[in-house]
């Protein structure tokens, strides 16, 4: 399957072409180049998936990872032992990610035709989209952790570039810098983790079976390294307390939010844990449970903030954080790799990947739908919306489908994946199971609060009279419909467990009705509550609740002041007490020393410059004196 | 018979006259003449040493000839430069050439 290299090369070439020669293309041509490349990449990804999953399994029914399709040694550091390789690794999760990334990216490419129509820097936008797609695809097919890190940073850069796409808006610039700095800060831990891992285990490879001796030698340092790598993943995946960049990242164009900050890049942290899962489960199961609790807290925190936000993209951003936290929890509650059980200890792995897959589809759908709405009313605020269902029927229906999916209503895809996560949580501990069920209920509540706020509720008649909302053009609605179809069908029509599971065996997904029933009831109650509070024109209950618990409401609205906490820590403590003294030392001692040297040289030169009179006769006189002196010495 | 010492005295006088002129005269042309004077004094020395000490050889004469040729070329260049300087500054005294310092 050597053609998989094209999956990486095509977007890269498209990036180079559009990035270097973009200004000579018309908008239309630039968009078509990017989209056609992505169409080919999507087709190739599906071919790869078909070829990969139809390969014969081993005798135990295990889907084995292929030996790297392409592999070359990039940096041979030592004659033997540690070296950096680059290559393409195909195994169930990387192939699954190829499908997710190329599908969503393709949809976003098509959608952007309509959304970015006539925008300045259209070519640049498509160039960056291609760069992002290339880096994300490179990340998932990495054969070793170092290659993963390389593309990880590339993904961060392209995210930075795309958040700051509207570079004339100060908010976008601030958001892009924030995203870059926060994720870079987390990536520092990732890098330290990689170095510890490489130093103690002597390998960077993902070939865990072949390198088993090295891992045993790692001893205590291995869980440490994994935890440090998780901090890197938490930064990218916006886990508490490193989540602060994601809501601000919504300053970027909405299709970018759909692609990067909902479907693909932010799940990189989940993917990283899944990639190193055999190590976690075998050498650091206790550390893995830390991941679960971090995830559970993040899920709760983000869900509670999402309940009171008024900017629709912010609601979706916090919902993304919450859903990614669900995936983290699912990975974190795994206890062992066993088979034969009804609910094996590594069920969470499959559930997490499944949720990643379904979430990417319906969250991209939600963001693209939000993009259509913003396109129609030219505002992100819910106060500018309300009653939009009459104007935008397609967006309305697809948005509703996505809301039902994320709330966990059968037969939409989110139900199946979330149910597997909850089953895995209950298998780990009933407390975790109930917590996550409650958070799933909150999810349903805030999603339907959002849905009613946009499509029902009080219509902003004054605003709509000035500018009648209209349905988006076909380039924008077709991706919505495609993603809605995927959301409807991929839950029950696709037997995800038989392709992706922790040990590679065929796992038949079966619903545990005690869990599924509870979660459906909770979701329906939450939706009914949201309907009761928000579906009407006036919202007396909501207003009353808000005034009753005004301080809580205020805290949640300001995201529990996490940004202010960061502001305080960075400005008042780090900048004032660490950076400032260092800056003083640099300016006065280090700079002072060199300034003194320069000043001394200058002053000396000023003093003796009179000797350089430029008059040849004076030089000749000195020369003559010198010659006479030499003569005198020689005579004596 | 003319002794070597007489010739050397003449050439030493020429030499130091040249040095003195080189150091004191302000006109570039006079400085050039001083240089020629010094060169010619060495030419006399070449010829005299050859004639008096090594009558069989001819190296000294040839050196003198070379030196004369080179000094002729050098004078040509120096005068060309002076003409240019004169065109620019309407003067060729060294005191006015300070412009070239910076």
Q: Give the CATH architecture of chain B.
A: Orthogonal Bundle
- Approximate shape of chain B: elongated
N-C termini distance of chain A = 92 Å
Chain-averaged pLDDT of chain A:
85
Tally of structural domains of chain A: 3
Outline of chain A = globular
Give the biggest beta sheet of chain B: none
Strand order in the largest sheet of chain A: 1-2
Number of helices of chain A: 25
Number of strands of chain A: 2
Count of individual beta strands of chain B: 0
What distance separates the N and C termini of chain B? 56 Å
Percentage of residues in helical conformation of chain B = over 70%
- Beta content of chain A comes to under 5%
pLDDT under 50 segments of chain A (min length 5)?
A: none
Give the SSE order of chain A as H and E letters: HHEEHHHHHHHHHHHHHHHHHHHHHHH
Topology:
The complex is a heterodimer of chains A (636) and B (102).
Chain A lengths: L3 H18 L5 H27 L16 E6 L8 E5 L3 H24 L6 H19 L4 H19 L6 H32 L10 H7 L2 H16 L8 H4 L5 H10 L4 H8 L1 H7 L1 H22 L5 H21 L14 H31 L15 H15 L5 H16 L1 H26 L5 H6 L7 H16 L23 H22 L5 H9 L1 H8 L4 H47 L7 H20 L1
Antiparallel strand pairs in A: 1-2
Chain B lengths: L3 H21 L3 H26 L5 H31 L13
Helix pairs in contact in B: 1-2, 2-3
Name some characteristics of this structure:
heterodimer; A: 636 residues; mainly alpha; 3 domains; two-stranded antiparallel sheet; 25 helices; 2 strands; 71% helix; B: 102 residues; Helix Hairpins; 0% strand; elongated
Structure, explained:
The complex is a heterodimer of chains A (636) and B (102). Chain A has a two-stranded antiparallel ribbon with strand order 1-2. Chain A folds into three domains: 1-187 and 238-278, no CATH class; 284-557, no CATH class; 563-635, no CATH class. In chain A, a hairpin with an 8-residue loop joins strand 1 (70-75) and strand 2 (84-88). Chain A has 25 helices and two strands. Chain A is mainly alpha-helical and 636 residues long. The model of chain A has no long low-confidence stretch (mean pLDDT 85). Chain A is globular and about 120 Å long. In chain A, 50% of the residues are buried. With 102 residues, chain B is mainly α. Chain B has one domain (4-92): Helix Hairpins. Chain B has helices at 4-24, 28-53, 59-89. Chain B is elongated and about 50 Å long. Classes of the chains: A mainly alpha (636), B mainly alpha (102).
